């Protein structure tokens, strides 16, 4: 079955995430690739989310111990929103990060500077060439967020909220969401952090950089006004192709 791994992937730094270009929206009678506060990662060959189940596994026991708790909430939320079963398992898979894993498998790793740059994590999402659906791939998470005190903030609550949000952000990429940045002020330039926001200032978790909620209850949650509609449309696009 044809598939491809795109190494060009979203990076998350201590200050935030690198931007990607905005794909155009389509007619409401067919697939839709962008909306208010969300975009589908068409630049990476992903146009839809296949309805078959996806599983989240780990590169080793260290990744499982550290990151499984951070994945349970967003995986359950994405399952509810899309109707696609996304299950966090205890399985270990040692498929190299440069190789696509088994179909609909997302391998999560935890290591020091996995991209070679300080504070950078990365989603390496695969896609199925013949239908443009999310295949799975790798989430490479930088251990510095935990091993370096106050990596994101001197506020302990916010510091952990940023960790939650990073994990969910990379899961969003793995399922097919792109960065939510856009040219809001019409100056012809899409700047980092230039994303829509709620009245209280919450930006999409897929914003670049550091979107999402910063309170302990909602941290790591796909935002209902922005990210959830994007996930829902990814699933709908499978039937609208």
Structural overview:
There is one protein chain. The protein starts with a strand and ends with a helix. The chain is globular, with a radius of gyration of 16 Å. It has four helices and nine strands, in the order E-E-E-E-E-H-E-E-E-E-H-H-H. The protein is an alpha/beta fold and 241 residues long.
Radius of gyration over C-alpha positions, nearest whole angstrom: 16 Å
| Largest pleated sheet | 7 strands, mixed
Strand percentage: 15-25%
Total DSSP E strands: 9
What distance lies between the first and last C-alpha atoms, to the nearest angstrom?
19 Å
In terms of quaternary structure, what is this?
Answer: single chain
Low-confidence stretches: 1-27
The helix content, as a percent range, equals 10-25%
- By secondary-structure content and strand pairing, the structural class works out as alpha/beta
Q: Indicate the overall shape.
A: globular
Number of DSSP helices?
A: 4
What is the string of SSEs from the N terminus onward?
Answer: EEEEEHEEEEHHH
**Mean pLDDT rating:** 90
Chain-wise SSE layout:
Layout lengths: L2 E3 L4 E3 L21 E2 L2 E2 L14 E5 L2 H22 L3 E7 L12 E7 L9 E8 L5 E9 L1 H4 L8 H20 L51 H14 L1
Parallel strand pairs: 5-6, 5-7, 7-9
Antiparallel strand pairs: 1-8, 2-8, 3-4, 8-9
Features:
single chain; 19% strand; 7-stranded mixed sheet; globular; alpha/beta; 241 residues
What's this entry about, in short?
The protein has 241 residues and is of the alpha/beta class. Helices cover 25% and strands 19% of the residues.
